[in-house]
Amino acid sequence: MIKAFVLVSLLTQLSIATVAQSRNNLIFNPDTSIVTPQEVQVKGQKITYKAIAGTLPVWNEQEKAIAGLFYTYYERTDIKDRANRPLIFSFNGGPGSASVWMHLAFTGPKILHIDDEGYPLQPYGFKDNPHSILDVADIVFIDPVNTGFSRIVDSTVPKSTFFGVQADIKYLAGWINSFLSRYQRWASPKYLIGESYGTTRVSGLARELQESQWIYLNGVILVSPTELGIERGTATDAALRLPYYAATAWYHKKLPVELQQKDLLQVLPEVEEFTMREVLPAIHRGGQLSPAEKKKIAARMANYSGIAEQVWLQHNLDLPVTYFWKELMRDKGFTIGRLDSRYLGIDRKEAGDRPDYNAELNSWLHSFTPPINMYLRETLKYKTDFKYNVFGNVSPWDRSNDQTGEDLRKAMAMNPYLHVMVQSGYYDGACDYFNAKYNLWQLDAAGRFTNRMSFKGYRSGHMMYLRKEDLASSNEDIRQFIKQSLPASNQPAKY
């Protein structure tokens, strides 16, 4: 079997046109693949699998290839009945971000060489992921157009075909259809996982796949979700930030002693209750709120956030998150990270109302960029002179008509098999955990999906899996979600 894989790999490698060159222009082939045999130890069990790295076309309505998406497909090789084997399509966000993040740090068979809290280490590299979900599901990591090695083939096609909330959902749904046919996976239970903007993407895909491709899912996993087009309004948006501020202040030991001595998960329910019962109506009342009432609310917000009462009053109880990142650790000479507030940065000057840069993102790019290039080009043998775009140009992006939260709700209503799980880090300031909870409340306003929706929180940030402890627990949560969302044999999809 290994010899056969090696032969296929060598023959396919020779056909990869991405290394071709003519007059200094690289020629992109939208349909390539190379196969390598691999194995990994997951939860003490040896898993043998094949890794397929390649491109698969995006077809237009005339069945002409207009782009090619790069993907990495991991298929366990000791499975005889593929019809019962779950298949997960994995997307990251941006928009304009490649699949590198979850691919090389979360669910895949390899993870970065980083420390236990997620900070870069040299020499750069990767190692086996003992917590990968490859024991229970096959995984496809997908790079949308202009990310990773994915490229547009037909330059006459308008960029609006790919770059926008609805355009992105439409062409990716068609591509998934093609993938299922190419690899004969139509019978498999199907799942989507998306991180950050990827949650917007997969929420919209859940409905689009049902209505335009007739593909029905068993589960959608939302990692650090966006607002999913669910309207908040200025006052609601302002109020919902407070629990994140409290979590971050607790981490940096900025809360009063009586709160600081409690565990984080004892503090947060108290802050959440205060947010919904008192902060939310107070901000909505605005100028109708008496000075005494306003001062009382500001004092408690200061108590829970590590930000002075006077600062809250100066901002009319609406403290911008950018100001919070600058202010919380100002007395120590640091800013805090946007996507993960455990990370610290140093600005040119301590004055100001926002950080100079995103401390956490620079750290992550430091960790991810060398290993993904090493892994794809050397370990998986995908030979190309194309640049791997960790972030690609997808501008202008049409953000109009974002109704993806409603799309997901409708997909759940129409498909009794469909389950949803949210995973959020308490220290994520870009897609904060309390807004993720708010999403679930609005998606299920009638309370009819309670047994098909779940929330999991972690003591880290946007990419919770970078922290060793959370890598284990977040993968285990996915593993259990998959097992619990698989229907019993011959169980009908009906209410």
From TrEMBL:
Q: Name one Pfam family in it.
A: Peptidase_S10
Which terms does the record give in the GO molecular function aspect?
carboxypeptidase activity
Q: Which InterPro entries does its entry note?
A: AB_hydrolase_fold, Peptidase_S10
- Record's signal peptide: 1-22
Keywords assigned: Carboxypeptidase, Glycoprotein, Hydrolase, Protease, Signal
**The keyword Electron transport appears for this protein:** no
Source organism superkingdom: Bacteria
**Entry's PANTHER family?**
RETINOID-INDUCIBLE SERINE CARBOXYPEPTIDASE, SERINE PROTEASE FAMILY S10 SERINE CARBOXYPEPTIDASE
Name by which UniProt lists this protein: Carboxypeptidase
User: Which organism encodes this protein?
Assistant: Flavihumibacter fluminis
